[in-house]
Amino acid sequence: MKASIYREEHFNSAHRLHNPKWSDKKNKTVFGKCNNPNFHGHNYKLLLKLTGNIDENTGYVYDAKKLSKLIKSAIINKLDHKNLNLDVVEFKHLNPTAENIACVIWNILRKEINEKYQLKITLYETERNFVEYPST
Amino acid sequence: MKASIYREEHFNSAHRLHNPKWSDKKNKTVFGKCNNPNFHGHNYKLLLKLTGNIDENTGYVYDAKKLSKLIKSAIINKLDHKNLNLDVVEFKHLNPTAENIACVIWNILRKEINEKYQLKITLYETERNFVEYPST
Amino acid sequence: MKASIYREEHFNSAHRLHNPKWSDKKNKTVFGKCNNPNFHGHNYKLLLKLTGNIDENTGYVYDAKKLSKLIKSAIINKLDHKNLNLDVVEFKHLNPTAENIACVIWNILRKEINEKYQLKITLYETERNFVEYPST
Amino acid sequence: MKASIYREEHFNSAHRLHNPKWSDKKNKTVFGKCNNPNFHGHNYKLLLKLTGNIDENTGYVYDAKKLSKLIKSAIINKLDHKNLNLDVVEFKHLNPTAENIACVIWNILRKEINEKYQLKITLYETERNFVEYPST
Amino acid sequence: MKASIYREEHFNSAHRLHNPKWSDKKNKTVFGKCNNPNFHGHNYKLLLKLTGNIDENTGYVYDAKKLSKLIKSAIINKLDHKNLNLDVVEFKHLNPTAENIACVIWNILRKEINEKYQLKITLYETERNFVEYPST
Amino acid sequence: MKASIYREEHFNSAHRLHNPKWSDKKNKTVFGKCNNPNFHGHNYKLLLKLTGNIDENTGYVYDAKKLSKLIKSAIINKLDHKNLNLDVVEFKHLNPTAENIACVIWNILRKEINEKYQLKITLYETERNFVEYPST
Question: CA of B37, closest CA in chain A: separation in Å?
Fold first, then answer.
């Protein structure tokens, strides 16, 4: 009786795509307007998928309210209304692409949630660009 | 030449989360405002995924209009504008969480659709809370 | 320098459409499955439009965070995860149609918000059925 | 034979809410996390409403492709992937709230589009917070 | 006690923008790829806004189920899965732009619905292009 | 460090479902109003999922801007504002169902994108009907 539950949360952040090992010219060529030195920003939509057995007493895989609180305390408080490059330690030496943000979020939540549950992150940078980590 | 088709339908129902083996206090603690004795309700969005071979004569995996009719006759008529706890026999002794509703729907549709097709249910209780059964 | 701001909030409630002055048969004829005696329910989406001058010091017509808190304390706490017919005093003698719910919400908020601001409510019962009060 | 046409465009920007006449403490109290010195950001959704007569030869009020090009050249190029506070001259001395951004956009487009058409801007900062300028 | 109710319906049609008084070259210049001689198509989303008094006995401005049936019998049956240019008499000598389709729909519904109700049509050709008739 | 990225694009086309080996009567029975001889149309929404390793230098699985350009040049230019049956060679002898359109798109993109990336297509014919190819 395995099922998956999904919980959606949101955060609004500034970021800049940049590789410090590269010249300004190469950064501009590769990242285009995403390399703007003064940053730009997004409304990120985060979807956490959690897979496990349906508990017979509750009928839940996991309490959605608890999951929402956990995502808010571990992720949203850390990333919302922040500059990902300047305010978030994980991106001090890591380019804050959607792919890397999804990895960082997965690694944080993985430590907070019992190993018996499988986890997957979908992160929407815009309605038309989004990523999944890990891949299926 | 396997593909999956999806069909979305909707139903609007009242429900209450409650475990009759537990005290009122424990029910309140676990289910919070979802335990309100007078019920609350949702616009449920149901997505049926059906996987099979693309038929050479029709170009269909399955006729979407037939699938819609089948979901309406087997599921929507049963659950729409109903009180899941009081009006639907499957939830007489089963807590109508999104997880359990998705299981009930899958079990009903599984009997109505040829075994050569794989089925999966996604059930949205709200835009931000949804479940998948069975899990992948 | 007049502008309008909108804030969206949500509540999930059970209700039943019924006119106690009418026979059961007439209620069934007029309200159809919305008259189910055991109730059904919806995810209501509430949009508050507030019109006023843009304040020169803040650049706000009204602080959206304050507006959200106000809607939550005055409306969402009252209606969310409730049975509108049984749990909400305003609907003791008033049929909880989308039109009437929108009026009730407008009347409550009108008392909480300074008269210099114009207010309008849009209430979505489903994605495809919604109402506006007052009309323009 | 008057009708209105709407065209939706998008831009992704960083910003910070701040009033330089106020102390840091007052800014923090009024603007909360929107005052973060390192900025945060949004996916802004812009809706332009243009009202006029339906042309008998084209059946258009205004060519939607031309309108899209105009919004892109006059607005999107100016605001997309920018820091509104640092990169956009109009916000050098104006707080980039949604209300003020909508005004700035309206003023720019008003000069580009023949006076016989009425214009209105709807600007979404998030799905749940948006503004309209001018107000109706 | 005036309120407005909205009902959303859908139709999927082929069309071509073309002015028979113009040369092929001028048609191509003005309408671009929308002038493709073999047609293209859209999922049209239709929103009917109806304004009137809230009835004291029902709590309705107008029964949404009746409104849906009326739109389906008068509009959807006429336009859905049709070629607007070839199959719909109203567009025999009228270019099927979104503006003109909205007018045609309004004129048909105006005859079907009591004059005491005000009507407005919003017609979405795509998510990003839509029109309102009559204009406010 | 495998992840998946998704890119959404759109095209608006006319089509007709028809099997030339069948009688008109059988075509009408099987395909219903989708068999209309003068065609109908849709706003198709295309989602490309691409799975691969996250590049250490860019933080990308694949540059979303490049992916968007590739989809536009290989797919959107070919299908947008076209009649799939009459204007697109791949459907000269293939019924343009959503399933078959998804296959055709996958086969074209498979040749354009390095084999080290896995690809999947989701194609929405309407919000409520969509297909995935290949199936998982």
Answer: 17
